[in-house]
Amino acid sequence: MTSPASTGHPTDLQDSAFLRAARGESVPHTPVWFMRQAGRSLPEYRKVREGVAMLDSCMRPELVVEITLQPVRRYGVDAAIFFSDIVLPLKAVGVDLDIVPGVGPVVAKPVETLADVEAIPDLDASHVPFITESVQTLVRELGGTPLIGFAGAPFTVASYLVEGGPSKEHAKTKAMMFGAPDVWDALMRKIASISAAYLGVQVAAGASAVQLFDSWAGATSPDDYRRYVMPYSSQVLAAAGGLGVPRIHFGVGTGELLGLMGEAGADVVGVDWRVPLADGIARVGGRAVQGNLDPSLVFAPTEVMLARADEVLAAGRAAPGHIFNLGHGVLPSTDPDQLARLTDHVHEASAR
Ligand SMILES: Cc1c2[nH]c(c1CCC(=O)O)Cc1[nH]c(c(CCC(=O)O)c1C)Cc1[nH]c(c(CCC(=O)O)c1C)Cc1[nH]c(c(C)c1CCC(=O)O)C2
Any idea of its EC number (predicted)? Predict the structure, then answer.
């Protein structure tokens, strides 16, 4: 990791491989970071999180800073992602929810009616002073390594609010989407406004890129995505565009939606591992891409994993910009040494 003493002025940062690739410029090597690079796969994470609830840890700047930096120190990845969660802004404005270990976000009183939506306050910087403080400290500590801010996209956050917890089918969410369009519209606007404000706080404090996670948008068909999801994601991405930083947009199982997710206003589209990267690049036409090694390949022998990484790197050369990543988050049982080897290999192989 570059030391803050030797770097840290904005030109270094703007010239980083990650931001250059996000803007579609030439790079000295393919930049690499991992979704969920901070978290349970790291022993140093499990240690500092001992006895601290997930959402409490997100509100304590000394923990947020330490956890965000851990994978940067360990792997020398090209970007840090701010340690938080997509439901944190809802918690910050007063929605009664928690993150249950091994389960995920659980909402005490799921959203059903227009009155439920109207009861959710809008977010401003005064709700999240700990975010501003954490980001400011991180940007100082990270020097020439960019910090990615993030938020949940409206569909994915709506799913937690409407289902009351994690869901495979998103049945209640879609029931509202198809059957109560006025409630759906109000809810999606509300979340879009909260997510946009939340990204605004992170960028104002110094984050140099943002990622909008629409992890579960792949549950919708292209027509329904266009009608019921895309306008609200566009609202967030347009607001983020006004902040002057690159916007990454990602979801799982979104093979049929990649073109639309780019059109929604992304500079970089995240591709999961189900879509060959070459096809993903064609579908997002003219935009940079991020991805897309199968996260399970870390469990294969190292040489198998690295050979597959080479295929991803080779395919990535056809894009205006390529940021190497996994096709979804790091699995908790991942051996960190495999990610260290993968990071070094991506750097070395792409610099040749
Ligand atoms: C869908 C989603 C959520 N949260 C997030 C998404 C979108 C990304 C994706 O698709 O994976 C985003 C997220 N959540 C977390 C981060 C941290 C930054 C990073 O990527 O390193 C990020 C970017 C921390 C976290 N968020 C959560 C953990 C695990 C909780 C813990 O360590 O106690 C972490 C490190 C909890 C969480 N929060 C959520 C889930 C599904 C879970 C996992 C439940 C479980 O298996 O325990 C909702």
Answer: 4.1.1.37
